[in-house]
Amino acid sequence: MAAHSLSSRCLFLLLLLAIQTESSRALLSSPDLNPPYPKAISDLKDAIVKGLGFQGEDLKVSGFDVRDAQVGHSVAYEFDVEIDNKVHPFRLLEDVNRWDYVDLPIFRPVGDENGLIESRKSDNVLPVLAPFQLAGPMELWIQDAKDMRLSLPHDVDAGVLKKVILADGAVVTVKGARSVSLRHPLDLPLPLNRTQNGFASGLLALAERLRHTSRTQDAPLLSLRIVGATSLSSPTSSSPSSTNRLRLKRLAPGLVELSSPSKALSTVSLQEESTTLLTPSHFTTMWPLPSINGSNSNLLGFETLLASVLGPKANKKGSFRLLKADVLAQTFVKIGFGVEKKLKQGDGIDLEGYPQWRTKPETVRMHFEVLAKVDGEKVVPERIMQVNPVTVEDTVAQNLVVGNVTMSTTPIVHPPPDPFAL
């Protein structure tokens, strides 16, 4: 009897423990006790609702689940062109090649200490530009000077480099840069010759004119700012006696000049310049980016866009000013959300053609997808698209299909007997 009482008590305690566990799970899964949106997502939600003009108490916005957010990297090109005292901004964005589910630090809930620590280390996961080449004459201002690395072709200890001057003929490969921007406006001459034989001859001829002007002592050097933990190195070559080797000259603390020891390169460039200025359609590369080919699709597209903005002015003698030129590696987020709104008279929702046998809806639900860029600790919406959700096929009862005929009135048909049937 005592053993039976003891087993009953153990069973009762196990039952209470199971009930307590299920109650705790129910409390944890309650929507009222879920952690709030991360601040970045909460600000994104407010900006979208305000931008779409959604107002009123009969509105409900759902979604913005960070577990469904997809993250991708792309390159943005931003230009401000001044034509006849009018500024024309351009913003071009490369397509994102790959979307992944990534746990960004800004997606951590509010109050997550680990998230705050990770957000301070977010510089380690920021996207960078693909390696590219720059050719002199020009000057480079390095924002993250402490993280600068110089290789000619072996690593050189030149101290904290804040400014690097590339002499005429010097070419370096830039790695690890997050952005490159123009420090001073440029006056660009016209006319702009249009694309010929598949090459962006207009922009290439314009670049050669600027390169020729920058070689004079009176003209200021082309000045660029580089942001990011960057490394500058000589272009790799299989030949040990290659002219790609650069010579370092210290001009001041934090200031060095890189030059090519071969003077033949400058001579050949001057001879080629006299020819290419007469026949711009034979250009193959663009200064100061020798790694960009004249048939590059982005270059061709930008020349067509610029020519359309210039209009007839593109074929006349004159000039225009490039105020801003930025190339940035950016992180983008793609996330979906839904909007549920109560239907009212005058909303403009047309229910004509809606099946009469179905109950008229009282609310309408719309689905959207937002593309936003990650800017530090903020998520800024770039484009909002309305998407169509997966449609569910309607199911209709059999009595509605056959005209509401009951089985009692359906005639019974007896098929002829089959002698082979069991």
UniProtKB/TrEMBL annotation:
Keyword Signal appears in the UniProt entry: yes
Signal peptide: 1-26
Keywords: Signal
Superkingdom in the source lineage: Eukaryota
InterPro entries: TUNICAMYCIN_INDUCED_1 (IPR053283)
Protein name per its UniProtKB record: Tunicamycin induced 1
Organism, scientific name: Carpinus fangiana
